[in-house]
Amino acid sequence: MNRLLPLASLLTLSLSACAAPLPPQVRTGGPLPPQRDPCTADAAGAYLGQAATADVVEQARVAAHAEIARVLHPGDVVTMEFRAGRLNLDVDERNVIVRLRCG
Prior knowledge:
- This protein is of the alpha+beta class.
- It contains 2 helices and 3 strands.
């Protein structure tokens, strides 16, 4: 009985190797969804020098066409991954926006 298990496993693997490959996936439903404009920090330049309140941060995010916004305070530990749709707002000790950048 113990000899039949390896033989059955080998037979199953052998048969699976004979299977036809899957056809490539083709998109068939209508036009592609519209692409979002990339984050443009320059478009939010009017918010430089303003206090980084929740409303101002949201307005800057919308102006920059960003998906999300992140406020960075002096000394904050930040991750280095690049996210094209993220607006980074660097603020000073008084919570005033001193730099805008995407990523």
